[in-house]
Amino acid sequence: MKDLYDFFNEIDIDLNEFAEAEVDELEKSRVKQRVREGIAATGQPGGVKKRGKSKAMVAVAAAMLMTVGLSGFGLVFPAYAREVPVIGDIFRFLDDGRTGVYDLYTEKALDINMVKADNGIEVTLNQGIYDGRTLSFTYTIKTEKDFGERPRLDDWIDVDFAQGSTGSSQLKRVSPGVYVGQSNYTFFSEEEVREAISFRWRISGMTNMEESTETGDYKTTDCKLNFSVSLNALDYTVVKIDDNQAQAQNVAISLNRLSLTPINTLLYYSEIIPNNLSHAVQMDWEIKDDLGNIYEHETNGGQGKVGDETTEMENIITFKRLDPKAKTLLITPTLKLVHSQGGGVAFDANGKETHFSYEGLPEGVDAGEWIMKTISVDLSTVN
Q: Are 55 and 107 within one domain?
C-alpha cells in the first residue's frame, strides 16, 4: 500500500472543494475496481511511472473521497470486504455502460438466491431471466483463496429441448476472493419461442488464469456444484418486417422479425453466404429510431446448415428496449469480409462428422466493408 499513500501525499487538494455524495454498491465497486487497476498499473515493472500531481491521480483521489466508508475499508482491509454486500445490479455492473442492453434486466429478473459450496468455493445463483430464446443469469462467488482478476469457471448448462445453443459468460473480481459473473445462453429448437425453461447449471471447477504450472497448464480447483431452476418466459410482441432484404458481395441477408419484451429487443435475421466466404463474413449493425436514439447491440450467435454451394444461417442479436415514443426503427447492416484462418467440424443429417479448414480469402476477393441498404421497420402499430 506504500505506493498508494505516496501518490496521495503528492497531491495538493483542498478537501473543502468536495462534498459527500450518496452512492450505491454498484458505484462503490466500480470505483474500487478502477482504483485497484490504477495501483496495479503504477506498481508493475515496465508499467506507468509515477508523476507528480497528474490529472489521472487527482481523478482517482477525488473518486476515493466520494466513496469513504465501506469503499475505503475495502481497500485497506481486503478480508473485511468479503463480508460487505457486493453489488445489487450485476447485469449493469458488468456491462459498465458499454451497451445499455442490460439496464432493465434486474427489475424483471427472478431473484433466485440459491447457494451451493464445495472445496472452498461458494456460489450464489443470484438472478435469472428468460426472454423466450435467451437465458441470462448472474452469480456471486466467494473463495477461500484468490483466483486472480478474471478466472475461468468450468461449467455447462443442461436443457432437454435444444437442438443447439450458443453462449457467453464473464467473471470479474470485485475484491479479493469475491467475484461476480453473468452467463447468457441462446437455445435453438423447433419451437420458435418457449413459454418457460427448466435448466441445470453444473460447475466442476475454477481456474486462476494468471498462474500456470511448469508445463504451461493452469491449475484448476475442482468442485461439484449443481443448480436446478425453472423460469417463465417474459411476455413479448412480434413485429414483422416488410421489404426486409439486402445484398452485397454475393452475401444476402433478410431481417425476419423483431421480438419486443419488457427488457430488450431481439432481431431475428437470416444469411445466405457462398461457402467459400462463410469463414470470412462478419456483420455489423447501426440501429437507430426516428427520434435519434442509437441502440448498441450484442450478438447471440446462430445456427444453420451447409449446402453444396451456400451456407444458410439463422441469427439473433439483442439490444435494449425501444423508446415507446419511436414510430420507426432504421436498421443498416454492414458486411465485413476479413482474412481468417482456422477450421471446424460439420455434421450431416445422420450425425456424420466432416472436418474442414480454411485460410485467407478466395482468390480475387478482397477484404473490406460494404454498407448495405437501410431497412425501415414500422413501429406505429406497436406503440
A: no
Kindly state the helix (H) or strand (E) to which residue 289 belongs, with its residue range.
Answer: strand 281-289
Q: 151: which 3 cell numbers?
A: 478466472
Q: Is residue 383 part of a domain?
A: no
Which among 173, 171, 178 is positioned nearest to 203, based on CA atoms? 171
Task: Output the DSSP codes for 113-175.
Answer: EEEEEETTEEEEEEEEEE-SSEEEEEEEEEESS---SS-EEEEEEE-SS-SEEEEEEEEEEEE
Which domain does 301 fall in, by range? 237-378
Q: Which three cell numbers mark 328?
A: 420507426
Contact 286, 372 (CB under 8 A): no
Phi and psi at residue 105, in whole multiples of 5°?
Answer: -65, -45
Same domain, 208 and 117: yes
| Chain position carrying cell 431473484 | 111
**Which cell numbers in the block locate residue 107?**
427489475
Count of Cβ atoms closer than 10 Å to residue 190 Cβ: 6
Say yes or no: 299 and 353 in one domain.
Answer: yes
Q: Shortest CA distance to 112 belongs to which of 263, 229, 262, 232?
A: 229
Regarding whether 223 and 243 lie in a shared domain, the answer is no
Beta pairing partners, 239? 258
Shared domain for 75 and 159, answered yes or no, is: no
**pLDDT tens digits for range 91-116:** 888 877 677 788 888 889 999 999 99
370 and 354 in a common domain: yes
Number of domains in the chain: 3
129, burial (CB in 10 Å: exposed 0-12, middle 13-18, buried 19+): buried
Kindly report, residue by residue over 328-381, the tens digit of the pLDDT. 999 999 999 998 766 566 666 666 777 666 567 888 888 999 999 999 999 998
- What whole-number distance in Å separates Cα of residue 295 and Cα of residue 248? 23
- The CATH number linked to 105 is 2.60.40.1630
Q: Is the pTM of this model over 0.70?
A: no
